[in-house]
Amino acid sequence: DVLEDAEGCAYENLVEDFGIKVAQIVKGVTERRTFTEDGSIAESWHERKYEYLRNLEEASPESLLVCAADTTHNLQSLLQTHYMLGDGAWGNFHASIEEKLTFYENVIAILERRLQSGIVAELRSAYSTLFLALAKEDPLGSTARAPAEVGLILF
Fold first, then answer.
1. Which of 48, 125, 128, 136 sits between 20 and 30 A of 80, alpha carbons compared?
2. How many C-beta atoms surround the C-beta of residue 36 within 10 A?
3. φ/ψ (deg, to 5) at 35
4. Does the pLDDT at position 154 exceed 70?
5. Got the DSSP string for 73-126?
């Protein structure tokens, strides 16, 4: 997430600090963002995630490994934040819980198809753990659906 989240860090910085190979790996899983005059992100959450999923279809195996590790960490962090804040954990996103879960299921499906690595099983486990935690708090299932029920819908 360094190119997305670190202020002042550009692709050229990665090339200079880590070389072209590492910079390309990172760029392969970086969301494209443009900013409006007021500093907000021009693309909607849905637009960014749709493009990200499309990029995963062409990303290098190394970039897919980074994606799997980053997404696993994101899910684990989200679970911890959910335990601490409850529904407040979801307020920082521009998408519903269901939309986030659908996005993550799409990422997992792409990685399961394109990447032969044990880290994908770890990612699936992190997703399932988050899903089960949400299902316990929402027994009627109005917020989350079982992983098998989440449609692979590109936004």
1. 48
2. 8
3. -120, 145
4. no
5. HHHHHHHHHHHHHGGGGGTTSSS-HHHHHHHHHHHHHHHHHH--SHHHHHHHHH
> How many CA atoms lie less than 13 Å away from 18 in the CB half-sphere?
14
**Which neighbouring-strand residues pair with 142?**
none
Quick check: helix, strand or coil at residue 41? strand
Mean pLDDT of the 108-127 span:
96
- Structural contact between residues 93 and 141, judged by C-beta atoms closer than 8 angstroms: no
**pLDDT confidence band for 132 (50 / 70 / 90):** very high
Summarize pLDDT for 59-96 with one digit per residue, the tens.
999 999 999 999 999 999 999 998 898 877 777 778 88
75 φ, ψ (degrees, to nearest 5) = -65, -40
Measured over the CA atoms of residue 4, residue 9, residue 12 and residue 16, the dihedral's sign is negative
Structure tokens at 79: 């679970």
Distances in whole angstroms, Cα of residue 67 to Cα of each of 47, 85, 141, 143: 18, 26, 28, 25
